[in-house]
């Protein structure tokens, strides 16, 4: 079954029936005020931090699913019938329905008995609020009188207290109305408030949710909408709603636009002034235009034309868009990660910077600095932090011996190196940044050295990295309190990080430092190769009792994906080891929906392995297709020159390719989900946890930098393709340090890899130079 299609021209995904298998969502906002809007207008919003400053409430685990949201009710004043353009919450069967998820906005349109209503939701100009432009049109031959109601259910700012401390929260909530603005704030808060506003004449309003809904009713049949008027309730406790009732009369064929603005105000007394540019439809449309321009510009730095339409669609639009969303919100806030307790992940955000580096490196640098501030003076880092407060910690998993993860700090090296290559901003390495004790500061390069030190200072009996609480695989909890469990993956990541530090040192001409990094790399590499090769592949870890995970003799977890891909990415596997371990991935782990994380999955809980064994076989890290890991295999294959295999792996997880079987994929076909149930699960092939996943950044990296081969170097732009041999040609437009490179790659000999000739602006060169910002250059690359 198909629920929608890609409108390539408009860069929208168009959903044509509301009953999608899961809510298919979009994000609005750019990382400050923002939120989630589903295809039936479900979702919530927040300012800067979904835990500490929630604006709209969402009911987790609700039945019916996906409520509440940003609702508009249209009521016929004569018959009293009412409906929503987004189907929910009345679920009245509409004569037509359509939801367009675009870049930073969503438009939901419904028609019922000759009245058409559409609502466009977006955040203007990075402000602290969102706009709803509501358009109502009378397609009948008679004059129609109707009422339009809004529904915005407010949350207490602390979204955990909102759920847990009803005793306090519901006694202090306050709703007020003044001149077209409803505000909502705790009693003891003097200035700031959540609010909803309109420039239209308000016939009645409610600030108290209970008054609007009525007893033993729900959002599906609020008493106010049924009766055709709100009760002008001023809420002095209980729950809050931003409900306006606006009378509308439309002649035949006439249409009218009404604007609502919803958000957070630092000072509620000056709201009217702040909003005046947005409250009339003209101002609101102008803001929407600016948003479209923003996204046009955002995506201009990378534009590809390959023989593969889905790759073009994803690299030019959806993959870049998803990367910006993961950059904004890490793994903090989706319909699955609820914006509660987990904060922004250090390893996650560090990897997310890779997906935006080509277009907003300055913002990436801003996030990198925040992450460096999460480092302890000994080099390890928090596991997560909260964006509003900057406070961080190690999460809520049970602690035995260690409260740190073995990998968080190492990802910082990859992020900083990518930033330097993109920008050439070497001075950043000497900028001073505080550690998380907020007293000690050090240069960026010192922070990175400390990261390496921490791992080198925490080795286990096999002289490889201690596992700590877990590594990239959050669920591999090997620590039972003995303090010796080791992670092969982290050790491989360390090798990669050491080599990236070596590259930086070499480029800066620091030969001694470079030699030292090589020593660190080799020591670890040798330790891994001495004890972690299992015959056909690399082992994955050693548990606290010294037993290896990921060996052919094990009953479960014989082979894990990450210690194969990272053996190559980390430069650990040489000669036949590299080919063998990647071939083992294909033989034991590959499926038509993607490569599973390990095999065979654990069937019973085992406290020496921890969280991974809490999942049923085939789910998540326990043998599921954890998509984030798949691009690492693609990159490893490319490093081995195997463009056909890498491309096959890329294609098999392309969500757009499953648009026609969306009932089986279940999640949105326009973004990568976090995971797909694996071959050992009865629901093999179903996607879970859409949107927030490192898959976004790494697939963008794998496809654009490794398959298409266009990547930043310290003093050049690199074009090093590794493509399917059948491709004859492709083009990439890349803006790099301000200059535009119009790249055309030709593959006359039908090879996977290898560059015979590079011609820049008509002249043969060895290296593609960095050009003056603002200039445009042609680059021809002949493979062979
Ligand atoms: C989740 C976590 C991420 C972790 C991954 C694998 O996506 O957010 O940090 O690496 O799971 O366990």
Automatic annotation (TrEMBL):
UniProt keyword annotation of Zinc present: no
PANTHER family the record matches: CELLOBIONIC ACID PHOSPHORYLASE (PTHR37469:SF2), CELLOBIONIC ACID PHOSPHORYLASE-RELATED (PTHR37469)
InterPro entries per UniProt: 6-hairpin_glycosidase_sf (IPR008928), 6hp_glycosidase-like_sf (IPR012341), Gal_mutarotase_sf_dom (IPR011013), GH65_N (IPR037018), GH94_catalytic (IPR033432), GH94_Enzymes (IPR052047), GH94N_ChBP (IPR037828), Glyco_hydrolase_94_b-supersand (IPR010383)
Glycosyl hydrolase 94 supersandwich domain sequence ranges: 11-280
GO molecular function annotations of the record: carbohydrate binding; glycosyltransferase activity
Keyword entries, A-Z: Glycosyltransferase, Transferase
Protein name: Glycosyltransferase 36
CDD domains from the UniProt entry: GH94N_ChBP_like (cd11755)
Lineage: Bacteria, Bacillati, Bacillota, Clostridia, Eubacteriales
Glycosyl hydrolase 94 catalytic domain span: 294-709
Gene3D superfamilies named in the record: 1.50.10.10, Glycoside hydrolase, family 65, N-terminal domain (2.70.98.40), Maltose phosphorylase, domain 3 (2.60.420.10), mpn423 like domain (1.20.890.20)
A single GO BP: carbohydrate metabolic process
